[in-house]
Amino acid sequence: MSKRLRDAELMGEDIIDTYLSEEPLCESNHPTESDEPKLRRFVVDGRESLQRPRLIGKGLHGVAILATIKGDEYVLKVFKHWKQPGPVYYRYDDAILLSPLACESRAYARLDSRNENDGIWAAQCYGWMRLSDPQFQELGNVVDVNKHDLSRWVVVKEYIPSPTLPCDLPEIFANFEIPKRARIVPRDARLDNYRGSKIVDLSSALTEPSPRWTKFKFELFYGNTTFGIFQWFKGVEHAYEPPPRHRDNHLLTRPLPL
Ligand SMILES: Nc1ncnc2c1ncn2[C@@H]1O[C@H](COP(=O)(O)OP(=O)(O)OP(=O)(O)O)[C@@H](O)[C@H]1O
Ligand SMILES: [Mg+2]
């Protein structure tokens, strides 16, 4: 693999129309489910100021900023620049679909096209935005944009103030039916990525069809990995006791109906 391909820009303007769409995310233009999920854009444009921006979280893929825009509070997940980490390097057309921004956008686009971007399994998404120069400067007041190597690309979501508690686990488990039906492998289902009963981080999610999506990963996740949530509070007082499991990994009783 040549150095040129390894260092290729994977978050340039051409992601619009690849996995982002210029359509505003509003009820009137609901997309139909297709094999190429494209996230619709946030209805607010680059001229609106970000009021009272506050840093509420950071991770490997970006920072989460809580800000008020036109009177409403939103979480802006601002993505870091991304290059293929290796050791396996994908050709450009595949690599562009594997960035954390692409993973999160495609998963939300699939939910949207299925009418399931409703804040039940995952924090509701309001679309993507690209920060204008003034908005990027406002961001610079609360976070070091150079240190975090931040791009201008943002996925806008609802804010969930409440932490996840042991009593949320049955609902979290039952709600995995939603991404399963949508052919999404969330991959990063950790306590840190949950607030209340909702997942807030889809930047590792694989949405079929994707270069790294495989039936094996899909079945492993839903047949096994999802049960790991019942370990989150192990050893903590009032931890949730998981219901008994069949040897084939099915629960004998469903914790909650959908
Ligand atoms: N919608 C939200 N409501 C409340 N808190 C949030 C929200 N989104 C993100 N956070 C907080 O910000 C943190 C970082 O956000 P996020 O997990 O999306 O970043 P990341 O870079 O993808 O993280 P990771 O290192 O797990 O890949 C979360 O762990 C969570 O605590
Ligand atoms: Mg995270």
Describe the structure.
This protein is α+β, with helices and mostly antiparallel strands and about 260 residues long. It has a single domain (about 10-240), classed as Transferase(Phosphotransferase), domain 1 (Orthogonal Bundle), CATH 1.10.510. Helices cover about 20% and strands about 20% of the residues. It is built from seven helices and eleven strands. The chain has helices at about 5, 90-95, 100-115, 135-140, 170-175, 175-180, 215-225; strands at about 20-25, 40, 50-60, 60-70, 70-80, 125-130, 150-155, 185, 195, 200, 205. The strands form four sheets. The chain has a five-stranded antiparallel β-sheet with strand order 3-4-5-7-6, with helices on both faces. The chain has a two-stranded parallel ribbon with strand order 1-2. Strands 8-11 form a two-stranded antiparallel sheet. The structure holds adenosine-5'-triphosphate and magnesium ion.
Helicity level, as a percent range?
Answer: 10-25%
Number of domains: 1
Unique bound compounds: adenosine-5'-triphosphate, magnesium ion
Give, in spatial order, the strands making up the sheet with the most strands: 3-4-5-7-6
Radius of gyration: 19 Å
List keywords for this structure.
single chain; 258 residues; alpha+beta; Transferase(Phosphotransferase), domain 1; two-stranded parallel ribbon; 7 helices; 11 strands; globular; binds adenosine-5'-triphosphate
